[in-house]
Design goal:
single chain, about 25% helix, binds zinc ion, alpha+beta, elongated, two-stranded antiparallel sheet, 1 helix
């Protein structure tokens, strides 16, 4: 059995802090030095782009040393951070957001259908 992976980070309030590093974390290279409470594990981002423009992205996050739990913003419990809504969601709410995207995609298709009717029938 292998040793659990750890990472040592320099903080402004507690000096070097060594914590377990979850397998999904992409690392802390380039992360600014800050408070221990603000240490953030981040997973690989999943971006939604269209024609090279990023619409939003999401990734798994966790603030493992947080002493103040703030729902959907800062938690020791891993969640999915979604940039478009600037919130971190639990699995149930990520599914709800995905369902909302599905509904929005349907509404976009309805607009495309409406546009085709307008442009083919000359109702301009
Ligand atoms: Zn990490």
């Amino acid at each position: 059995m292998s040793e659990p992976r750890t990472v040592t980070l320099l903080t402004t309030d507690h000096g070097p802090v060594t914590i377990p590093e979850p397998s999904w974390c992409v690392g802390h290279e380039g992360a600014p030095v800050g408070l221990r409470d603000d240490i953030l594990h981040r997973g690989r981002p999943v971006a939604f782009t269209f024609r090279g423009q990023e619409i939003t992205d999401a990734c798994i996050v966790q603030t493992p040393c947080a002493t103040l739990e703030v729902a959907e913003l800062n938690s020791r419990t891993p969640g999915v951070s979604v940039s478009a809504i600037a919130r971190t969601l639990d699995a149930r709410n990520v599914y709800a957001l995905a369902a909302a995207f599905d509904t929005y995609a349907d509404r976009l298709r309805d607009l495309a259908d409406q546009l085709l009717v307008i442009t083919t029938e000359g109702d301009l």
